[in-house]
Structures are given as structure tokens and as C-alpha cells.
Here is the input.
Amino acid sequence: MTSLLDGCTPWPEEYVDHYWAAGHWRGTTLDSLLRGWALDHGPRTALVHGDTRVTYAALNRRADRMAAGLRLRGLRSGQRVIVQLPNVPELVTTLFALLRAGLVPVLCPPEHRGPEVSELVRLTQAVGYVGPATHAGFDHTAMVAEIAARGPFLRRVFTYEPPGTASEFGGGLTTDPAGCHYSPLASLDAPPEPALAQSAGQVALLLPAGAPGGGLVPRTHDDYAYQARAAGEATSLTRDDVYLAALPAGSNTVLGCPGILGTLTAGGTVVLADGPDPATCLPLIARERVTVTTVTTPVAESWLAYPGGTDTATLRLLQLTGTPPSPGTAGRAGRAFGCRVQQLFALPEGVVLLTRPEDPAEATPATHGRPLSPDDRIRVVDASGADVPDGTTGRLLARGPYTPRGHYRATAADTFTPDGYLRTPYLAHRTPTGTLVVTGPAPHTPDSTS
Here is the structure.
């Protein structure tokens, strides 16, 4: 079985062998992918945020030095670190630096507060936290200090300050009475060290589960790299594409469906927006010549209603995510923005459904399309677990090369069937043409993740 972080369920060997033979898994860690991207696309722009532009070479170099800085501060391979950053280049750099240092990022939504963050620290025994000092009027440093004072785990806090902002730590390191050390994220800088020997079968990161109370989802380097690459192929990403991260960049949808990682895999450029509102995003689409972005139905509606005018001539693809699919919004957005609309359904557990250009015309606005991988296995079942006929609504189950076999530390042990199918918390039906429509959350049952 694959080598995973303690507390995770590995894939059976027969599936590991098949996913390797099919070329889905390629044995390269995500941080090693960055090294290859830097060699292939070094001077090209990888990240844009405001007036900041980061090349592939600079991103790789900064990740190297930050990884060495993390190890210099006493963090060791296999330890977990909470990452709660807004849409800034430092989020991407930090993820790659943690991976390069052998640490496991625990992605935390920016809006989470003390109770949720404290539970993540307890569940993962996280020794570190990376987040803003303050953001959207909330004092993250004070929140983390309170969590550190109550428990034995959190001992390293690295705070992000926007460029030009003076850090309250003055560029140095301070220690509170609980023994937790605080320092600016920018201070993590040391000469690069030799690369760690890591397996792509190990857990790369932990994502919040796709339903409240569902715990955490362990994603390996192999399976997450495959998801991002396959999603990039399904959206025809090339090095000429510019992806706008309008929704939170640390979410599974924006990070890897194909999102940031898929765009970087193709050699394109990622533009990080401070929020999804039209006054922020529509000017960015025009200024940066954005070609692809991902939004929810409410965000798309707000863009359509924006009175300030739009210049979306470069936009070729709008991914519309939500359940159920929104055919009315899809049709209006396609006409208003002059682009193709792709319906997308994605869970952190790895289930990705999307429409393709070759799908029947009626499928694109009204369905979520087909599974991402040819080796995805999808079932729609009734309350007894029996498959239902096409057109009949039932519980959506999925298994495949980017769907893990269990939640971290079995926080939702009954979410997976004995033969490895994820019992998603959603209802769906299959159309006569084979496409899928996810209609909404399933009612709570004893085996529900909701």
C-alpha cells in the first residue's frame, strides 16, 4: 500500500498499480513539479497580485529559501502547519515551501475563527500557523495566541504583512508566556538546503472536507497533481492562459480544478484577486487579459448586474460551480461575457464533474457533465445502497485515482463504503446521455457526511 501520513487510509496495491500503469500517477512531488516549471518557464510570469509580479524562477527560489528558513526554526518533516492566508502570492509560496520542507499544509478558509482553527490544531496536532496578522478587520494574531495558550501543540506562528506594512515584530522573533514563537513570514529566509527525499505517495496537504463536520481530506502528491493536470487538459489550458483566482485561493476548486496548480502546470499565469466582487474582478480581467476563471452562481449574477461596464474580450472560459447547475445564469453569462461556460462540481474528497466542449449542446447549461478521469467510477444509489436507473435521483458515490479512501484520522469513518466508494453528501441523477446532474445536499442519514 502507498506510504501515507499516520491516520490516513491508503489505496489497495491493485489500484496503485493500475493508476501508475494508466499514467495517472507519475511519482513526482508537487514541489518537484515547481522545480521543473522554473526550468521550463523561468522568466515567465507565474503570479500577479496588484502591482506585484512573480516569475516562475523567483517563485521557485523563494520557496527554496523559505523551506530552509522553516527548518532553521525547528520544524521537521511530517509535522502539520495551518495555512490561513488570503489571495496573495505568499499563499502559493508558503504551500510550496512547506511541501519542500517535508511539512504538511492544513488549508484553512480565511473566514474561520477561533473555534474552527482550534479544532484543526487539535485534530492535526499542528505545530505551526501561517496567516495574516490582521485581515478584514479581524486580529488573527490574537486568535492564535489564545489557541496556543490553551494547548500543547502550536509553537510557531508566522504572520503575513502586506508589502510596505511594518510588522509588529520588527522583523525579529518574539515568544509569549506559553512558549509560542511569533515572527513575520518574510523573515523565513535561509540558504537553500539539499532536496529532501520524499515519496509522491505521501500526503501532500490536508483539505477541509466537503461537508460541515466532515473533518479533513488527505491528498497525496500523486493524486492531487493528477487532478490538477487532468482538469487543465479538460479546460484546454496552455501557457498562453491567464487564470483569475477570484474565489479563495486555498479552496480545492481554485487550487486544483484546474485553478492555480493546473495553470502553473501548463506554464500560464495566475492573477490573484482580493475578492470576487465585480468592481475588483472585472477590471482585472481587462487589465491582465484573463482567459479563464471560476465563480459561483451568485458571483456570476453579481458580475452580470454590475453597472460599471465590462471588457471581457479575452475571457474564453467561465467555470460555473454550484448545485444544482444554473442553466439560466450559464446562458446569460456566456452571451454577456462572450465566452464558453463550463459547469463544474468538485469536492475536496476528489470528485470532479465537468462539462466538455464535445458534450451535447443541451448538456452544458443543464448538467455537471462527466467525471474528470476515465478511471472514475460513479454510482447513484438508493437508501439501501442499490443502483438506481438513469433519471432517478439517488445518493452520489464515487471512487477513482484522485479520491482518497478515507478522511484524516477517520473523522468520518462511515463516509466510505467497504469497497472504497465515497458516499458524498449530495443527491444526483444520470441523464440518458450519461451526464450527471448534482441536485443538492442529501437528507441527513446515519451514513451522511452532513
